[in-house]
Amino acid sequence: MNPVRASFSRSGDFLYLTRRRLIMPRKKLTGNSGNRYVEDASMKELDQIRAPLYRELEKLSKDSSYQRGKESHLCCPRKYNQMRISPVEARSIARAFRKDPRLRGRLPAVLERLEKALEGLSDNGERQSFDCPLLENSKCMVHGVAKPIGCLAWHPRQYSDPEGEYGFTPRGWTAFAARDRLNDKYHGGDWKLRVIPLWLKRVFSRDLKHRPKSADSANQGDGTGPGGRRRRRR
Q1: Which of 13, 66, 104, 174 is the most exposed, fewest CB within 10 Å of its CB?
Q2: Global confidence as pTM
Q3: Which residues of 25-59 are buried (b: 16+ CB within 10 A; e: fewer)?
Q4: Which residues pair with 20 in a beta bridge?
């Protein structure tokens, strides 16, 4: 209900009570409403950047020569994987798990793999090797909904650069530039590319904090191993 203001106006020798409706200023987008607006806008723009890459992948998958090459998921284990992502891409992954019941049901397994991947990583923006926690049964869990630009643009079956950058098409490099501009737009210049587990650690920080610990994990803090046996220091 809009508030009203009482005032008096004179007509001849009588005073009349009149009412003037106040025009209240629109509220600015702040707090959660503002955050949701920004997130929705950034996710929409990220989807627009990814769209040409999905179309390119669909076209390549119909090429018989492409099918004879190396499968993309074979690049996801630690031996070959140093893929870095941006904060907007990380939020896209978290959003997919938040909105998709099927993915949400698999989150505990993802968090377990994430914690293992984090054990061998330094928290910085450098390239580092890791097993991708989003790889399950030889498939990317977020392929159709939140696949990072680098993973989506990577085509080891067909493209290579003699200078050492392998597997990215021209569309891929265009998408990288657009992704960086998108992050600049929503995060300013103060953001970093980080390997996938380091960004997942940030967007899933609350889930990691409240994740039930296994018996083995619980024993690590007191120097004991499985069954409560004291571990030998190395």
Answers
A1: 13
A2: 0.73
A3: eeeeeeeeeeeeeebeebbebbeebbebbeebbee
A4: 5
